[in-house]
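Write out the 3D structure for:
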Amino acid sequence: MSEKPPARPAVTPTLGGGVAPLGAANRPAVMQLVFREKGALYAAYMPVLTDGGLFVPTTREYRIGEDIYLLLSLPDDPQRYPVAGKVAWITPANASGGRTQGVGVRFPADEKTRALKLRIEEILGTAISSSKPTQTI
């Protein structure tokens, strides 16, 4: 029997990227990332990155180092967390092993994001050291 694939967060692109009006700079992509359950957060969280990070399923094309702005909602937490991250890796369409297309977003090294990383690790608790498959590297 095969294992059930990891749960996925709800992702809603909200604005940014694309063609900018004449004279305007391209803005980073903005995505709303909603984790309704702990399993989806576990599957997307990247503790291997020093400041933390998340996998974001998307079909949009990105480049390594590109800015991406997340509005993050965590399970059972009414607060929305803004994160100005950068693309750390890309999982292309039709990746081996049936991996979901998307990008890994590296959190910035700032106090607000360090607090967010601690909050995520608090929610995940001992699950963070699980050997269950994830959508991350």
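Strands lie at 10-15, 29-34, 53-57, 67-73, 80-91, 102-106.
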